[in-house]
Amino acid sequence: MILGNNLKLFSRASIGLFLISGVIFSKVYAQESTQTETIGIKSSAGSVPNGNNEIQINLKTVKLILVRIPAGTFQMGSVEGEPTERPVHRVTITHDFWMGKFTVTQAQYEAVVGKNPSNWKRSDNPVERVRWEDTQDFISKINVLQDGFRFRLPTEAEWEYACRAGTTAETYGPLNEIAWYGSPLFGKTHPVGQKQPNAFGLYDMLGNVLEWCQDWFGPYSVEAQVDPEGPPSGKGQVARGGAYLADAKACRAATRIGPIPPRYSHPSLGFRVVAVGQKP
User: DSSP assignment, residue 24?
Assistant: First the structure.
């Protein structure tokens, strides 16, 4: 199964399971506020306000920093990229939500799940080689630890909205300043938070590792959408953001990679979490 025509965006090289230039994921599958807000998390894990509209969650032996993303409206998609990024359409996110300031690190994943599947081992690097199913396991475990938030993966719309952070260009800044990318032959992941953040205070939204989204992969609609969650089923999920081995065209806010089977993993595929609402 070929993972969509947009997978042609990666650099021309062959790396293990990747067929770069076709980007076949495997040979088997062809405006930031300064207000500090305290969130009442009643479990023993607890929470600590961290200023600048951030919250710090204690998960066993590690900490998870979340950034508040305000509700808003944006134009989703691009006329500059692949057909799967069109039509450009208006999307409204009606709710504030909290998003991981960084992708989930190897230290965080191992503390919660008890193992580290990553190819490029380093505690402050993004965890990778995680399947979509693995992300759900991690999330279910931190939802047990916390009783103030409901954690999940971002929807594709939430991800792009958070990545753009009020910008309308293909990237939220000069790519060399915000992303690790363009190293297909000898590249590897890098510690999180080393490049410049976007206006919401999120790091590595482009480059370093691709990020799983919650949605099944499907076509866009020309109609305006409110809090879209993607189709109810499909052949696989969506990943966003490009990666260390991707070229510049793949590291854009609108780039979509998919469908990716939920049991697929790769050394350039990681995730970050969002948190919403309160549990009953």
Answer: B
